[in-house]
Amino acid sequence: MTSTNPWSLTISEAHNLLINKKLSSVELTQSVLKRIEDTEEKLNAFVTITSEYAMESAKHADKIIAQGKSSLLTGIPFQAKDNICTSGIRTTCSSRMLEDFIPSYDATAITNLKNLGAVLVGKGNLDEFAMGSSTENSAFYPTKNPYDIKRVPGGSSGGPAAAVSAQQCLFSIGSDTGGSVRQPASFCGVVGLKPTYGRISRYGLVAFASSLDQIGPLTRNVRDSALVLQAIAGHDKMDSTSNSEPVPDYSSNINGDIKGLRIGVPKEYFVDGMDAEVKDTVMSAIGTLEDLGASVAETSLPHTSHALAVYYIIAPAEASSNLSRYDGVKFGYSHAESTNVWEALEKTRQHGFGPEVKRRILLGTYALSAGYYDAYYLKAQKVRSLIRQDFDKAFKDFDLLITPSTPTIAFLIGEKMSDPVQMYLNDIFTIPANIAGIPAISVPSGLIKGMPIGIQFMGPYHSEEILLKTSNAYEKSTHHSLLAPLI
């Protein structure tokens, strides 16, 4: 067995030890489960821990490795955000509405990982139905930031980001609707990737806003992100929005120089209220990229200022429609003390949903209602097209864009719960990529006041290869990915 704590390994490091018989998946999984046991009381990164299931999966993985049939993810312990369906394992969306819901099928992303022999150790906490930016909206408990447990880990994939940061798993998969993978990745000092819309199947991802949702990996470094993306990307006939573009070999194309790469800096992303040190971090990253041979110049995305408003019309509208299925009849929570079907419906939704989910349902229902549809939802869709066109124009001149991932470092728990607008502003830099459907990645770029911060790269449709290659070059030049919390 390796002298290093197995739970601290990257996917690549663990894979090499596994195939060379210097470590077994059982030993690795036992180490990860012990790490969860030692740290989870401080963090609340998990909703469900699947210890017995994980050990059985690890034993099966060791048999596959012994037969010489292993993949790069065989025997690797991972976590999945608790809005991604897992057959026979509770999938709650961190909501009382689905507190006891056990799906009868796996999400396609889970199926892909299982087929490769990856080991599921549990389900990650999130803002209820993925609606939030801090994981304080979980119906069960808030997740805490491993760098400072008085601060939030971000959201809605706060559990996955905290778990990867605290080395409670070797990787996690989350969902990103307006930044829910990238914003917590920035706050927790890990790599978070939102692929092109349709690159990864949404089948089995509990819907929030169907035209914006996308599954993405959270990992400790860029190479691991490439490995996980490789495993879960691809066309799926079960998802009508899944695209059929061939899946490149992301991991083998990740190395190499970025000389001649054209990188744009959108001036609209440097806003009032942003920490001066965050701007300094981006400027430092730009200097690093120029030293690596990239050319960097300012550009403009003029409709960026409308992105937040567009998002908070489209996303709640789609949520209002998607969440109408939770009526207390078909599945999930049902309020028992009712005299008729209408009262049962009202009471189920009153007690089953938390305040943020109710707020967004109300916003969305209003935007879709007669007399307001044209004024709000239809107009938001038109502005969405303008935002897409801004990106299309920028990518004629640039290969990638660089921006901050978040305007600030992680804020204190409770600091913004009383002001929804201030909470929503945390996603101001991440939302445009979802609106346009383009890929984006957040990569660690150092510490500010002892807390992690990330930079974001955005690229045109299906440019994950160049995003990963650029992020990897930056990561190797800075070593920010080697930072870890003292927990």
The counted number of beta strands is 11
Number of domains: 1
Q: Look at the helices and sheets and give the structural class.
A: alpha/beta
Give the end-to-end Cα distance, rounded to a whole number of Å: 23 Å
CATH level-four homologous superfamily name:
Amidase signature (AS) domain
For this structure, what is the CATH class?
A: Alpha Beta
Low-confidence regions? none
CATH topology grouping: Amidase signature (AS) enzymes
The CATH architecture designation is Alpha-Beta Complex
Describe the structure in your own words.
The chain has 487 residues and is an alpha/beta fold. The chain has one domain: Amidase signature (AS) domain (Amidase signature (AS) enzymes, Alpha-Beta Complex). The model has no long low-confidence stretch (mean pLDDT 96). It has an eleven-stranded mixed beta sheet with strand order 1-3-2-4-6-5-10-11-9-7-8, with helices on both faces. The radius of gyration is 21 Å and the shape is globular. It contains 15 helices and eleven strands. The longest helix is centred in the C-terminal third of the chain and has 24 residues, at 374-397. A hairpin with a 2-residue loop joins strand 10 and strand 11 (451-458).
